Each structure stands twice: as C-alpha cells, then as structure tokens.
Amino acid sequence: MLSPLVDTLKQLRYQIAHIEDGTLTNEYPELESFLSHVVRSVPNARDDIEFLYQFLYVYGRKSEATFNRFRNELERFYLWAWEWRALSVFELKREDIEAYVEFVVEPDNRWISDSVQWRFKDHEGLRVVNKLWRPFAFKENGVSQQTFSAMFTALNVFYKFAILEEKTFTNFIPVVKKNSPYLIVQSQIKLPDTLSNLQWEYVFGVTRDKCEENPSLERNLFTLACLKGLYLRISELSERPQWSPVMSHFWQDPDGFWYLRIMGKGNKLRDVTLSEDFIIYLRRYRQYRALPALPRVDEPHPIIHKLRGQGGMNVRQIRRIVQQSFDLAVDSLAADGFSDESEQLKAATAHWLRHTGATHDAQHRPLKHLSEDLGHAKIATTDQIYIQTNIKDRAKSGSKRKL
C-alpha cells in the first residue's frame, strides 16, 4: 500500500525530529511500516526522506503555498523512484527521469484519486494515512503545461540544493526538460485574466449601491478597492503567521502622499502608493468602522476586519467576500440583459482584480512605477504581462495586409 511521505507544514518539524530520533512509529506508525518495506529494496530510503524533509524545511517555511507545491511534486517523484525503479532519487539517471515524465503524462490508475485528499488524519493521538489519498488527482483534460512547468521547476531546485549540500553531483533535469516532447515553449500572445470595464462597473457599483440597505457590504467595497486599486494579492491582505496587516501599515510621507506597507511573495516588504480615489474609500470604510478618518501610526486594528471575533481574516474568508460581490454583479448583469458578461463573470477569481487594475493603469503609468507597486522583481515581468502596446501595433499593421 502506498503511503504519503510528508504531512502539513505545521507537522514537518515533528516529522524531522522523529526521523532523526528513530521514533517515527510513535506518531506515524503506518508511514514507518511503509518505509520499513521500502528499505528492503531501497536501502537508502531513510536517508532520502530525511533529505526531503530538510529541503522542504529550507524552501517551504517562508510560505505554505511554496511548501505545498514542492511537497506535492517531490513526494510523488520519491514514491515513483522507490516503487517503480527500486532506486534512491540520487541513483536515478537521465533515462529514469525521462521515464518518470512519461509516468506523469499517464500515471498508473492505482495512483489516481477522484479528488484532492488530506494525507494524514488524527486518530487516537496518531497520524494515520487517509486511505483515499493518492499521489495524483484525476484531471479530465490531462496534464497542463503549468503542471509540467511546476514539476520541472521543483525537481530542478531540489537537485540544485542537493548538489550544494554535496548529496549528489549530477542534475539531469535541465537536459530532460530541454528535450521533453511535452513541454511547449510559450510564444503565443497571452493576456492576463481581467474583468471588462462593464463587469468591473457592476462588481464595484452594485456592491456600493447595496451598502445602503446592508452596511456590512462596506467591508466588501473596501476589499474590492484594495485588490483592484492597489493591485494586491489576497494573501497580502490576509492574516499570516509572520504578518498581520493592520491600519498602522498605512502611512503618509512629509509631502502628504499615502502608502500601504505590505508583505508580498518571499516575505518581501514593499510600499504601494495610494491614489486619491482610494483615499476616499479608505475614509468611507473607516467611518463605517467608527474610526478616525485616516489611520494613525499606532493603530492595531486589522485592515480587513471580522464581523464577529477578533483579528484579521484569512485567505479563504477574503475570497468569500469577493465572491459575494461577484455573485451580486452576475445577477444584476443578467437582469439588465448583459447575459454574456454575466456568464463570463462566473469564471472570475479574486486575482482577476489585481490584473484588472494593473492592465488599466498600464495605459497611463510609467512602467517602473507600476512594476514597483505590483511587487515584481523585474520590470520585464510587468512588461510581459501587462504592456500590450507592441501587440496592438502589430495587430493594427497586420489588419491592413492585402491578399
């Protein structure tokens, strides 16, 4: 029977301690039993898993999303190496990794579940394996380019780290990736997912109009303003173990300009500029919360507050707020006869608001300023995603061609 190898980020440090102390059976008896079975054919399996935990601790502790992404990719790679090749991951050759890519394209049916499942569950003080868990979740349309890219990235980072730690001296991933028949080099036009002008007018306008009859929607309105007007990711507004967005993170410079200090990807702090329009909605939201018109440097209040309870909100709760406004707009668009716009809005996610704000402002803001507010490490990233000038010009010149 297959067993997952890695629990949650929170449990990782306990798994590391158990592996180092030889006490895994005290909390993970089924995982210990599985490893004992694997060691018969792969003597270095325990060393392999100890290194996996070390890697995930180094690369995953900053962000749970990063941890989950690397865990998912490496866990099934490990299991494949052990079960299908009876080799340590550090004994695999180029042809083995090519075979693994083929396996990812068409996994064994016994390795596929109908849905995403938890790996371990609590049972009488033990962490027991969820019998429904499998390394792969069924995807109707097969393996996407994004999945292939994530797989190669995770494996490449892993082997680079292993070389630095002198665990191995070879990394076959770059050559396998370069010659993979499944990874398509992206050269086509790819526009970011955004709301149309009409959809945004309804999302924001309907929420604002309904605030009169339902004042609690002021929180929705301000959340929309933050995500679209400040190009924020939901995670940047949410409560996290290492960061709690509070009102004192809004600050004003000596010239009267306002900023919001946030923690973005990779635990990088940045200051996002506030527009005059945004200040209007900041004042409005604070008035609704019975706070002074503008934030002070010592305010501990969460930026997005809970209607019940203390503290800030998590990603799931903020996503639910945004979806509520999307649903209101979907109904209003349909009622007003905009059935196509209404239907298309059903596919939107909260991240579309960041793209919508940046795409709109790319028409009139300097690229460097936009890039810094977005938190991109390179201006080229902003240019590639949001600046469509060359594409438009090419389309205009191309439309005049004669047959």
TrEMBL record:
Q: Known InterPro entries for this protein? A: CB (IPR044068), DNA_brk_join_enz (IPR011010), Integrase-like_cat_sf (IPR013762), Integrase_catalytic (IPR002104), Integrase_recombinase_N (IPR010998), Tyrosine_recombinase_XerCD (IPR050090)
Give the top-rank taxon of the lineage listed in the UniProt record for this protein.
Answer: Bacteria
GO CC annotation, single: cytoplasm
Keywords, A to Z?
A: Cell cycle, Cell division, Chromosome partition, Cytoplasm, DNA integration, DNA recombination, DNA-binding
Report if keyword DNA-binding is assigned: yes
Q: Where is the Tyr recombinase domain?
A: 190-400
Please name the Pfam families in this protein's record. Phage_integrase (PF00589)
Q: What is this protein called?
A: Integrase
Domain Core-binding (CB) spans what residues? 46-163
